Amino acid sequence: MPTSATSGPPGVSTEGVAIAHVDHRYIAAQDFVRISEYLTDKENTSGRVIERTDPAQRGGYYFIVSLVWHPGVELPAGTQVDVDYIHSDDPNPQHAHFVLAQPTGTLPEILLGLTGKDWKDKNTKITAYKVTLKDAAGKVLADKQSFLWALPAEANVAAATKS
After folding, report:
1. Helices in the chain by DSSP H: which ranges?
2. How far apart are CA 146 and CA 88, in angstroms?
3. Considering the domain boundaries, does residue 6 fall inside one?
4. Average of pLDDT values for 152-157?
5. Pair 63, 131: CB distance under 8 Å
6. What SS3 class is residue 77?
7. How many structural domains is the chain composed of?
8. Which of 38, 50, 59, 68 has the fewest CB atoms within 10 Å, measured from its CB?
């Protein structure tokens, strides 16, 4: 089995799985279309792991989770990702849960999309977030949060209402 950015050789542990950083932004549906799709009618992920809250909708707000990767580290089958966030339209924390159908790719990043009914307005912004990677049993492998997520709830409400 070849190794890649999110999978290593069989039998290695998940020790050392870490999140380098998390970027987030709105990505339009047409930004995912590749020429090969016109020939195959299948989405070309360009070597990325991509999960969406509504798999039928590509356009939405994405958390781009960049992993610290080195040989011998892999994400196990059934890897779960919890994304907790506050956005500019609602100061209350929201939650999205993803199970990576295939936690392998040639790039060390995972795209997690809030799509369809979960993200209606491309102008809405995230003000605070926390991303947690877990194995199939729920054991935390790695997590990363924004500075504002660590602040008291009152500060997050103030930040959300200013956006």
Report:
1. 35-40, 153-162
2. 15
3. no
4. 59
5. yes
6. coil
7. 1
8. 38
